[in-house]
Write a structure and sequence with these properties.
The complex is a heterodimer of chains A (643) and B (254). By secondary structure, chain A is of the alpha+beta class. Chain A folds into three domains: 308 residues, FAD/NAD(P)-binding domain (3-Layer(bba) Sandwich), CATH 3.50.50; 135 residues, Succinate dehydrogenase/fumarate reductase flavoprotein, catalytic domain (Flavocytochrome C3, Chain A, domain 1), CATH 3.90.700.10; 132 residues, Fumarate reductase/succinate dehydrogenase flavoprotein-like, C-terminal domain (Methane Monooxygenase Hydroxylase, Chain G, domain 1, Up-down Bundle), CATH 1.20.58. Helix content of chain A is 36%, strand content 14%. The relative contact order of chain A is 0.16. By secondary structure, chain B is an alpha+beta fold. Chain B folds into two domains: 109 residues, Beta-grasp domain (Ubiquitin-like (UB roll), Roll), CATH 3.10.20; 136 residues, Orthogonal Bundle (Fumarate Reductase Iron-sulfur Protein, Chain B, domain 2), CATH 1.10.1060. The longest helix of chain B is centred in the C-terminal third of the chain and has 24 residues. Chain B is elongated. Classes of the chains: A alpha+beta (643), B alpha+beta (254). At the A-B interface, α2, α4, α5, α10 and α11 of A face α1, α2 and α3 of B.
């Protein structure tokens, strides 16, 4: 495999607030009449994929859209609850593009690329206009104007929302825009079709190989460019708030064809999830962190305290966040809140039958504003909590515990969202670009839609313009045929597995007992080294001891899962390797060896202010590190403090 | 808890299907219904048998993937709840639970309890959108939308496209699904320009696939998001109007 050399993020020169504007002018254009001569493949139909496909179709390109779901509307963007940030400053409370940019860089613990973040903040305002135009029913005030709320500790109200279903409404907006293009014939939808390989020839992305989940048929599709918008890899932990189908297969297989995987150790743990209730638990349910606006987090001071929470007097409770962070209290950023909950539970003060939660108590808020106001603010969340736990949060404090929610790492891309493989673009959670080491609340929806609606449609033209007259690689080319054969072999091999464990049993063992335990909220060198050797053992078990009894090619869910888990195993090893090499604590990556005397994350800007991008060298765990140095010209590097 | 599970098993779209019965001991009341099926599937696999195919994804009641008839009721006994949010504590020790796929001609069975719901996508493609090319929208606060209108549009937009309404309907009609999308878009000021064309196209596409509505109201009872059948009345009114309006618009062009 060729050497990558120096990693260039290709951020345009000039003042930060003029970069995007001048770059848009400097990029080459594709003549409207020529756009139909180009084929583009988009994989994934969440916010990033659906918005990109619809926008490219509107421009006149031929777009082929792939999703493993039955319908684009099922993508996991649909489950986002809280809201979407935009620097509209409708509230006149001091927000601006620059402030959103600043908050995002700081919140990301200074591990994001300034140029990308500024552009994200800049186009955030267009997203709201676009979505309102599509009919997204954002919350309104009685005046008919859009409502905003503050979110995740932001000091301005810049979050737009549609009840507790913002992700659903934004995704339906993008899905409907895509449906319009499907009807118009500019986009062709391939549903229930899973991408299993990227085809690269002469160093350029040429197409993909897919498997039809209804027939098992493996086919090739070629195009002038390939766009991956396939989401994050949070399910590497087995238990996460991701949908059960969310997987890393598309990005991982692109990685194995040469795309760099950047910062895989940056994973976000969301502090307000419902704790697991038993060993059968299949996934964790997140509750909007807006709950922390009114709920107070506490644990009993005495670990042996078995009284029910209402019987524990104030003097015997420890409101540990309010005690340690008087300025921000219960509203500290996600990583800080999560880590503190873990400390309490590790020290034996956890609550609930499995002692795996902390209390989130609405007693004070109910006394202060009355149950009616609390009901208006949180009724759907309280109802959801009661449905799952059978406990009434109006009477008993909620129990919460952190859970994996989002992954900041992903495939490396430059300012144009192109990976190191020419012609391969990566959008949304699948790329690493905008959130640094930690993502702010209500910024995921913003990034997915920014990439799809307002960045890619410009930047892809610059690449395509140079290819006028070139035909896509014929799918009878040996590059496609070889890949098809490899996939068919893998399917055959998995279908002949006759071991003693189910895929889920092994997957849970890896995700929960190894990755979560040793590469979760806190990591240390010894644990990570152990994890790497555990993962290697699990890989051997996977290929020798799993059992797949279903032999069908039609909707064989055991086979689909086994293929995804095989990629998660390889990714888990790289995650631990990345976490081991990054000898500092930053954002979602907390190394126990690197903390301040009072237990806060200790960054090492002299040695680690770079993006760690890993290159596949032919064997799992043997990736080679490339660095993209991060320059902070506008935001001064500083220790985050929420005291 | 120990339950008896009677499940529809069907190898493929053209194979005949049949019920199979499984004894399921060791069910925790805190399990969700799908987690119970996960456990059954792990046991089937270890016994060398083929696991049950069922669709599911978010397990938070929002993606609309899951959906099965549980004891003859779409999504089971708890009102306003998708299958994934249903918990085993709603059943009793010793219960027999019958699990079937959605039964509707427009939703052919693919395998076991998984069905093909792509007819819903065809209805949306027929006009379930507001044509706003990227970048063409004016400032979001330029169009004022009274709060009650925005709220009503949101009530309709809450549909998750699971298909329970069709499964519950004796006629396999998709009026609730179609009217929810129409109401969402037709109520909003942005949706007015295409209102009549949208209504006519979506209703007629719906009728290509689904049965007719005879006001049983079963759809609303089955809907996990409890969407109101008032939207069906609104759709019917708009459809009648659309016939006249669309013809008039055409005659003006001529």
């Amino acid at each position: 495999m060729s050497d990558i050399g120096y990693l260039d993020g290709k951020v345009p020169t000039g003042p930060i607030d003029e970069k995007w504007t001048s770059h848009k002018f400097n990029m080459k254009l594709v003549n409207p009449a020529n756009k139909r001569r180009y084929d583009i493949i988009v994989v994934g139909t969440g916010l990033a994929g659906a918005s990109a496909a619809a926008s490219l179709g509107e421009l006149g390109y031929n777009v082929k859209v792939f999703t493993f779901h039955d319908s684009p509307r099922r993508a996991h963007s649909i489950a986002a609850q809280g809201g979407i940030n935009a620097a509209k400053n409708y509230k006149n409370d001091g927000d601006s593009v620059y402030r959103l940019f600043y908050d995002t860089v700081k919140g990301g613990d200074f591990r994001a690329r300034e140029g990308n973040v500024y552009r994200l903040a800049e186009v955030s305002v267009d997203i709201i206009d676009q979505c309102a135009g599509q009919g997204v029913p954002f919350a309104r005030e009685y005046s008919g104007l859009l409502d905003n709320r503050s979110f995740g500790g932001a000091q301005v109200s810049r979050t737009f929302y549609a009840r507790g279903q913002t992700g659903q409404q934004l995704l339906l907006g993008a899905y409907q825009a895509l449906a319009r293009q499907i009807r118009a014939g500019s986009c062709t939808l391939y549903n229930r079709t899973e991408m299993l390989d990227l085809v690269v020839k002469d160093g350029t992305a040429r197409g993909i190989v897919v498997r039809d989940l209804l027939t098992g048929e493996v086919t090739s599709h070629s195009a002038h460019a390939v766009v991956l918008a396939t989401g994050g890899y949070g399910n590497v932990f087995y238990l996460s708030t991701n949908a059960k189908g969310s997987n890393t297969t598309a990005t991982w297989r692109a990685h194995k064809r040469g795309a760099l995987y950047a910062n895989p150790c940056y994973t976000q743990i969301h502090p307000t999830c419902i704790p697991a209730s038993d060993d059968f638990q299949s996934k964790l349910t997140l509750m909007s962190e807006s709950l922390r606006n009114d709920g107070r987090i506490w644990v009993p001071k005495n670990p042996a305290d078995t009284r029910s929470p209402d019987q524990i007097p104030e003097a015997d409770r420890d409101y540990y966040l309010e005690r340690r962070y008087p300025a921000f209290g219960n509203l500290v950023p996600r990583d800080v809140a999560s880590r503190n909950a873990k400390t309490q539970i590790d020290e034996g003060r956890g609550v609930g039958p499995m002692k795996n939660g902390v209390y989130l108590d609405f007693g004070d808020a109910i006394n202060r504003v009355g149950p009616q106001v609390i009901k208006e603010r949180y009724d759907n969340l309280f109802e959801m909590y009661e449905r799952i736990t059978d406990e009434d949060p109006y009477k008993v404090p909620m129990r919460i515990y952190p859970a994996v929610h989002y992954t900041m790492g992903g495939l490396w891309v430059d300012y144009n969202l192109m990976s190191n493989i020419p012609g391969l673009y990566v959008l949304g959670e699948a790329n690493f670009s905008d959130h640094g080491a930690n993502r702010l609340g209500a910024s995921a929806l913003m990034q997915g839609l920014a990439d799809g609606y307002f960045v890619l449609p410009y930047t892809i033209g610059d690449y395509l313009a140079g290819m006028l007259g070139e035909k896509p690689l014929d799918t009878s080319d040996p590059a496609f045929k070889q890949s098809e054969a490899e996939i068919s072999d893998q399917v055959k091999r998995l279908l002949s597995s006759r071991g003693k464990q189910t895929v889920d049993q092994l997957y849970r063992k890896m995700g929960v007992d190894v990755v979560w335990a040793k590469c979760g909220m806190a990591r240390n060198a010894a644990g990570l080294e152990q994890a790497i050797s555990d993962i290697r053992a699990i890989r051997d078990e996977f290929w020798s001891d799993i059992n797949i009894t279903d032999q069908s090619q039609t909707m064989n869910q055991s086979l689909e899962k086994a293929m995804r888990v095989s990629d998660f195993i390889d990714l888990a090893e790289l995650m631990c390797k990345d976490a081991l090499h990054r000898e500092e604590s930053c954002g979602g990556h907390f190394r126990e060896e690197y903390q301040t005397p009072d237990g806060e994350a200790l960054r090492n800007d002299d040695q680690f202010a770079y993006v760690g991008a890993w290159q596949w060298t032919g064997e799992s765990g043997q990736q080679k590190l490339h660095k993209e140095e991060l320059a902070f010209e506008n935001v001064k590097l500083a220790q985050r403090s929420y005291k | 808890m120990r339950i008896t599970l009677k499940v529809w098993r069907q190898d493929g779209p053209t194979s005949p299907g049949a019920f199979e019965t499984y004894d399921v001991p060791g069910v925790s009341p805190d399990m969700s219904f799908l987690e119970m099926l996960d456990v059954v599937n792990d046991r089937l696999t270890l016994d060398g048998k083929r696991p049950i195919v069922f669709e599911h994804d978010c397990r938070e009641g929002i993606c609309g993937s899951c959906g099965m008839m549980i004891n003859g009721v779409p999504h089971g006994p708890e009102k306003g709840t998708a299958t994934c949010q249903l918990h085993m504590r709603k059943f009793h020790d010793g219960d027999q639970i019958v699990v079937e796929p959605w039964r509707a001609a427009a939703f052919p069975v693919i395998r076991d309890v998984a069905v093909d719901r792509s007819a819903f996508d065809r209805i949306i493609e027929a006009g379930g959108y507001i044509s706003t090319p990227t970048g063409a929208a004016p400032d979001a606060n330029l169009t004022l939308i009274p709060k009650p209108v925005a709220d009503a549009a949101m009530d309709a937009a809450a549909c998750i496209g699971c298909g329970a309404c069709v499964a519950a309907c004796p006629n396999s009609a998709a009026q609730l699904f179609t009217s929810a999308k129409l109401a969402h878009l037709n109520l909003l000021p942005q949706g007015q320009a295409e209102r009549w064309a949208r209504t006519e196209a979506m209703v007629e596409t719906m009728e290509e696939f689904f049965g007719s509505c005879t006001n049983h109201g079963e759809c609303r009872e089955a809907c996990p998001k409890e969407i109101s059948i008032d939207f069906i009345a609104m759709m019917n009114r708009d459809y009648v109007k659309s016939k006249r309006k669309n013809r008039k618009l055409l005659s003006q062009i001529r």
